[in-house]
């Protein structure tokens, strides 16, 4: 098969991990007889520097003409003092919104060979395999008004959802749960927020169509605690934008490093943008120190979710697991005990191990 | 000295842990020659059942005539299907707002003798001693509008702050940090929220008056991760209402149990309400299983913050530490390995050990 892939490396380590991922995908294409055509676009600080804005039209055009998109990471100190609408993050938030990528899927898996790298005790995380389904284009991230008032004496942000926005993400949660271990935890703050009470109602309604899925409601504070106390409790979590942001970063510690977490941002027609959960890590950028596995695993998610290439995706996931099982780690995972591989060496291991 | 204390046991285990705490405080009063006059009031489900509302005027009156208040916990399945304004939590939110208790202090300390009980590895939590300063009467909790729109097709909640609300809580953060290890982490989501950008500005302004305090800004998602990865990083955290709610529940896992965390809710004149961070735990209520230490330690905070009784507070804290060091635990901390004490036995240990 032939597929067009928009490639948006962005800033910092985004560039390095993207290079490696394109190599891994090309190796998979060779092996399985596919062609992936990569079309590069600029986003974030990279685009600010070259185009004067974080999300140029050209980048959106490339994405719209592609079958899926890969994104590295955006941001860095260089652009931090720019006014809000010109910051690198606006590029990321903008592309999610413009492309309608409302469903952010963040799988969190404890690799047996990485139990040492987690701050959590091995018995708590062994076997953890959860999927966080985060709403990505609504809530406090996009609600208006979001402004100063009374000459700067007051400020408001707005948590806004339409019922159909809640419905479609809750459906994604149920769909995912029904294909996994049939357990859905819906996270909200229904004892305080009206939006959470509506969220809970929608979950209850949708539950009727999935009688085999066990549904549970959990307050976000309790969920933040449970995530540390007993992460194996979770199969699929579905939650709104900001809660999903916080919980998925917290959950990353189960794997020992943010450098291990891939994500998919989907809409209903199969198009998706795939990116690591980590950021651009300016402190280690350009030093061949970045862990490329989150980006590589995001590539695997692209094969699975946008291209229906399940064997191909599994080949990548298997390669990653084998490299880790063989004791090869990047420095974020090495924990002092082993000699760490650089980014390039890790990529080679995944391709040729 | 003679002090009037409003005592609001509330629901579930709130009643049991409050009984014990009054005994501990009376023992302290005897030993140090004070008199504590306890005046009981109703709140939460207890008040719904007897007065038809979660926060009767009578309870507010008792608080206003007292020098400080102790609160147990509110809520339970019995009242969960009531309409929003009649739920037990409204009593809690109402009393915070009515009494103007804007500063919620949640200390998180790793007890050496409890390292086994935490899901985190001992080397990560040993020596952790942080204070979370949470804004308690603003933000998404109280902002309006908070409502359905378009016949239920849309919903909004409002994150609202005035500049002076931000200023006074940020000052509390700086004050606390300047009396501790001189490090303040301000947690926000400034890459998305306008309210967080204003929050950051206020922190920068106030920082000028505290040149000895090292200030750091951290995004809430990064903070949720750091809390697990390296909690010793933190001295004082200052943050808005909802972020503080989430982070403090997450942080509770450092101590091994929510049953260990006390809190103080203060205003500027010394009056405060003191309550455990845990809830009413209906599943174990009335079974003599609850850990009373969070409530007892909240009593110690009352002595320190509202009554300036520092030796007295330390006597309680020391007693708690000694009981734990001697290997006595309630079941939430026992981890299967030791025989657990019941609530009553634990209270006796703290008083007579
Ligand atoms: C960079 C930031 C705006 C973004 C978010 O909050 O969504 C990031 O934290 C993420 O989770 O992808
Ligand atoms: C019961 C609930 C409204 C409350 C809150 O969110 O403030 C609780 O979680 C707390 O932290 O005291």
From TrEMBL, chains A, B:
Annotated site, Important for catalysis, chain positions: 141, 189
Gene Ontology CC terms: cytosol
Pfam families: Iso_dh
The EC number(s) this enzyme carries: 1.1.1.85
Cofactor note: Binds 1 Mg(2+) or Mn(2+) ion per subunit.
Required cofactor names: Mg(2+); Mn(2+)
InterPro entries: IsoCit/isopropylmalate_DH_CS (IPR019818), IsoPropMal-DH-like_dom (IPR024084), Isopropylmalate_DH (IPR004429)
Cellular location(s): Cytoplasm
Pathway linked to the protein: Amino-acid biosynthesis; L-leucine biosynthesis; L-leucine from 3-methyl-2-oxobutanoate: step 3/4
Residues reported to bind Mg(2+): 221, 245, 249
Domain Isopropylmalate dehydrogenase-like: start-end pairs: 4-350
Subunit structure: Homodimer.
Record protein name field: 3-isopropylmalate dehydrogenase
Organism listed in the record: Guptibacillus hwajinpoensis
Gene behind this protein: leuB
